[in-house]
Amino acid sequence: MYQIIAYIEFLFNSTNQHGVHSPFVYNFVTKCLYNKVKYTAYNDFKTYRNRLKSSNDTLQIVDLGEGSKTLDSKTRKVRQMVKASSSSLKETKLLYRVTQYFNFNTILELGSSLGMGSYAFALANKFSKITTIEGCLNTLEYTKSKFNKLKVENINFLNGEFAAVIPNLKEEKFDCIYFDGHHNKNATLQYFEALLPKAHNYSVFIFDDIYWSKGMTEAWELIKAHEAVTVTVDTFHLGFVFFRKEQAKQHFKIRL
Ligand SMILES: C[S@@+](CC[C@H](N)C(=O)[O-])C[C@H]1O[C@@H](n2cnc3c(N)ncnc32)[C@H](O)[C@@H]1O
Q1: What is the mean predicted confidence (pLDDT) over 232-248?
Q2: Which of 48, 108, 112, 157 to probe ligand 1 with, by most ligand atoms within 8 A of CB?
């Protein structure tokens, strides 16, 4: 119910490119978010997702986050997991375009699950270095084996609780960090603060499910208000955070 009300409010308060005066954001919206090119990689995402959707595999799950709104059993069917927890095809395509547009080389993902996000990052830039963290070892091993078969080689899978793995990350900085696990206000703020030192002036933080719950929206509002943050772009499902000091602090809600 919260998500429906939030979406109606979003529709009233959001705009398209015509409401945007910042050239940086205008270009991001028109050349990236609204880019209608049908990249061949989109077929790969669809094929991979369809395979997962028709899979008869089951996994024993350890969920360290908020769990799923629709799945609560510890033994989950892959075909159900992909529908309940994976990035949608629309989001996957968007992550692909964003990675290409900003030319991300170093990417961190919190929450690998079945790998839709990692796949988007990996195909968008074959030379990028992607690190993805997953708390459930069985899920991680399953996704890793799928990517081995697909010959996707630029992904480093790390197993463990986000809070335990983050302090041991070797990378000084990341061009992009995708926060897509543990959709809870305090946890999201904790990971944001812990990863802020890994941001440089041109880094982009992407938050999934910012309207998943009232708490997640509160976390999003606090992130927007943070002194390190300048521009934010809210597309309802995903929230983009920029740190570019040359930009005035400004927040945009863009309908996709
Ligand atoms: C929404 S799914 C990720 C979807 C994936 N990023 C995609 O693009 O399809 C979230 C994943 O994060 C993992 N997770 C949640 N909380 C975690 C935590 N505190 N530490 C480690 N993994 C966690 C869950 O096991 C789950 O697989």
Answers
A1: 97
A2: 112
